[in-house]
Amino acid sequence: MQSTGLVSYAAALLILGRWPDVEPGQVPYAVALGVLGVISVSALYRALALGPIAVVAPVVASYVAVTVLLAVIFLGERLSAGQIAAAAVVFVGVVLTSTDARQLRATLGRPIPGVQVGLIATVGFGVWGAVFAAATRAYSWAVMILLLRMTSFVLIGAYILARRIDIRVFRDRRALALAATVGVLPAILGVFALRERLAPNQYVGIGVLAIGLVALGAVS
Description:
Blueprint (H helix, E strand, L loop, with lengths): L1 H14 L10 H25 L2 H9 L1 H12 L6 H18 L5 H4 L5 H26 L2 H23 L9 H9 L4 H7 L7 H20 L1
């Protein structure tokens, strides 16, 4: 996926005649974005594997609230009352979806493993968004995307080589098709395809989280 994205994006820049100039100051941003991106995506896939997907997916989607908070603190942005309210709704949704109320007494409120790992992805993506916002204020977004994709490709390639991971599985068309469809409507698939069952409060939490995300986008 990383190699395909890098090659296709680079090809598009060349075809459109928009190949950017690389400056030394862009490299730290690219490295930070690449590292954050790889860690966050890895945490996301691990969280989805632990499940339940219908809970993990909306929790990770709340990363936008983290990005907004960091932008206010470090980038000097200001939020309207509506934006603050929408961000608050997002966090309420995360709280509601992170714990099954039916098992609250038995688990003493501990969130399920998938949500625990998903929160790592949430924070990672949130920080990634803030760093990308800072980078694109100083440099062109086109060059930052190119450099961060290069960094991600190198990091993942190095990991594969170090762990001697066999990637010949992707010669199978079915594996390629599966890789291409990962992440498509995960919450819906979790409920209907994998037959996961949620607590009533988690259904409410997913709804609240969705409303908060929509509201946050509408007032931003």
